[in-house]
Design goal:
By secondary structure, this protein is α+β, with helices and mostly antiparallel strands. 49% of the residues lie in helices and 21% in strands. The protein has three helices and four strands. A four-stranded antiparallel β-sheet has the order 1-2-3-4. A hairpin with a 5-residue loop joins strand 3 (55-59) and strand 4 (65-66). It is globular. It starts with a strand and ends with a helix.
């Protein structure tokens, strides 16, 4: 069995947190209103990163698989950052195993 590390990315929450942290002039309710008025699709994906380096991405709205090359914007940024994090963690784990 190949263990996985699961992460959920909800794009609307990402933009909400970003707006909340980047401004002192907007109230949380105003940020919610702006995001609602945008009438845009916000991705809701589950990422499963496996120890062998593979990844499975599921669209939680449609239950369809998404390929990494289909990602854009904030979702792509999230994917890249988590991928780098997982690679670093894997390397550190391997170094610790061989140090003993």
């Amino acid at each position: 069995m190949n263990p996985s590390h699961n992460f959920r990315f909800i794009e609307r929450d990402y933009w909400y947190q970003k707006a909340l942290c980047d401004t002192d002039h907007l109230l949380p309710a105003q940020i919610d209103d702006m995001l609602d008025e945008a009438h845009t699709y916000y991705a809701d994906y589950t990422f499963k990163f496996y120890d062998d380096g593979s990844v499975t991405i599921i669209d939680n709205d449609t239950n369809n698989r998404i390929k990494p090359k289909e990602l854009t914007g904030a979702v792509y940024d999230f994917y890249i950052r988590k991928r780098i994090y997982m690679i670093k963690a894997n390397l550190i784990e391997k170094q610790l195993q061989h140090a003993n």
